Amino acid sequence: MHTGPMKDSDGEFAGWHDDDRPCRHGCGGAVKWREWDSSCGGYTDYNYRCQNPACGKSWWVDGIDS
Fold first, then answer.
1. 3-class SS at 10?
2. Nearest Cα to 63, choosing from 40, 43, 39?
3. Contact predicate 31/50, CB 8 Å
4. I want to staple 50 with a disulfide (CB 3.0 to 4.6 A). Which of 23, 41, 59, 65 is the partner?
5. pLDDT for res 10
């Protein structure tokens, strides 16, 4: 078990996928997501990114193993 946030480099990213939902920050932009698996094999999280250049925000959603 880890005691704080893990670095992106502590795991591996899968490729980007299109998401059916618009950006959660209200800009209405298209969203892409990718899965991140920790190197230790104990965690899977999801990284989302808005494709609207005016927004460009990204966020994480913890997997069920958090």
1. helix
2. 43
3. yes
4. 23
5. 85
